[in-house]
Write a structure and sequence with these properties.
The protein has 275 residues and is α+β, with helices and mostly antiparallel strands. 31% of the residues lie in helices and 27% in strands.
């Protein structure tokens, strides 16, 4: 389902495409196959060679082209769409459809890493001789150090906790990791992960980095998969920290590693050095 574009904008895009120009058309769009993606940008050009060459600069494969006989185009979604709009200087178009630049809540589940074009997995180094207490603390310290290198205390972040509860779920008592002035600002959101018919319940709140007890939050996440799971949940909750100034997301998902979902290949490369 497409909406948010008028006939004049559509006709202008078609005209530019048929003239062999690179033309971009962004509109609102809903499709159950792409949860959390509320917009799509069509990057079109009737000159297929030019379109293919342009796409290579952004890692777009020729086979991804919608080879419409008159208006061939790439369909750009999610982080790749946002990055390309900014790189192409389409600031007005970007700000119209992303006024706050934040990702939709439905994107924040355990599949985010696999859906993101600029994602990096930073593994933990665990020795088989490590005792549980030592490993949990060492992993926590390492992840907090990585976060502190990237985020300043005064920086604004959004904490998103996605849970996968059963009928017998128990409270997560997340408020203990949040400063009192933020506790009553926490919002909730629920949705169904269609592929698994799985209920996801989210809790999210925005504040400065200093208003969250990140070390204890990370410690509890790592600990959950080793010895103290959250009762009444199919999977351990997914803990996401979105750094608003850079739109970089950090996912401390379990005891094995740490995921960085970057908004651009440049930021992904910086984290790839740590991986």
């Amino acid at each position: 389902m497409a909406f948010g574009v008028n006939r004049t904008q559509l006709q202008q895009w078609k005209k530019r495409v048929t003239q062999g120009e690179l033309a971009f058309l962004t509109h609102y769009w809903l499709d159950d196959r792409f949860p959390g993606c509320h917009t799509v940008t069509k990057a079109g050009c009737a000159d297929l060679d030019r379109l293919i060459e342009w796409g290579k600069g952004y890692g777009l494969q020729p086979e991804w082209i919608d080879r419409h006989p008159t208006y061939p185009h790439f369909d750009l979604l999610g982080d790749r769409e946002r990055y390309i709009l900014r790189q192409e200087g389409l600031q007005h178009q970007y700000e119209r459809f992303y006024p706050k630049s934040l990702r939709a809540p439905e994107q924040f589940d355990y599949r985010l890493y696999h859906r993101s074009p600029y994602a990096v997995h930073v593994s933990n180094d665990r020795s088989v001789t490590d005792c549980v207490d030592f490993y949990v603390q060492r992993t926590t310290d390492e992840r907090v150090r990585w976060l502190n290198e990237w985020i300043r205390r005064e920086d604004e972040i959004r904490l998103i906790v996605t849970t996968y509860p059963t009928l017998h779920r128990q409270p997560l008592t997340l408020h203990r990791y949040i400063s009192p002035e933020l506790r009553y600002q926490m919002r909730t959101h629920s949705f169904i992960i269609q592929a698994e018919e799985l209920l996801a319940e989210q809790f999210f709140v925005t504040g400065t980095y200093a208003q969250f007890d990140i070390p204890k939050l990370v410690h509890r996440t790592v600990e959950a998969d080793i010895r103290r799971p959250f009762k009444g949940h199919i999977y351990s909750p997914s803990i996401f920290i979105e750094h608003i100034p850079t739109l970089t997301v950090f996912h401390s998902y379990d005891d094995r590693g740490f995921e960085v979902i970057a908004p651009s290949p440049e930021i992904a490369e910086k984290w790839q050095e740590k991986a």
